[in-house]
Amino acid sequence: MRFPLVSAAALAFLSAPAWSAQSDCMTTATTQQAMNACAGQKLKASDQQLNTTYNALLAKTSKPGGEQLRKAQRAWVAWRDAQCQFDTLGTRQGSVNPMVYTLCVNDLTQQQTKHLAAQLHCEEGDLSCGGQ
């Protein structure tokens, strides 16, 4: 089955509120190559923030907690990548695919950073916090 270059789902995906926060270079880029580069820059910054948060949480957790955090993070990365491959299937043959895929990865990376930050800043006695 062939997919159109930009499906209705992909257009909705691109116009989602998560992408609006990334509008600075995305609105000024005039070529697909520039939009791809912009999405890549945003992902790089998000990935650095995730790594900083992850390492801070890892330093704060117990040894068993750290082992579980590493295991969970590896599983999360595999899930994130597979999810974005699925979510961007409709653009797979198009030049927009690298940007759409990167924006998906960026969005999920930002969500994971928030999740890990919540774990990092848990109040004592909060039973939803693990590994500490």
UniProtKB/TrEMBL annotation:
Keyword Signal: yes
Residues spanning the signal sequence: 1-20
Matching Pfam families: LprI
Keywords: Signal
Keyword Signal: yes
Span of domain Lysozyme inhibitor LprI-like N-terminal: 25-116
Gene3D superfamilies given in the database record: 1.20.1270.180
Name of the molecule in the record: DUF1311 domain-containing protein
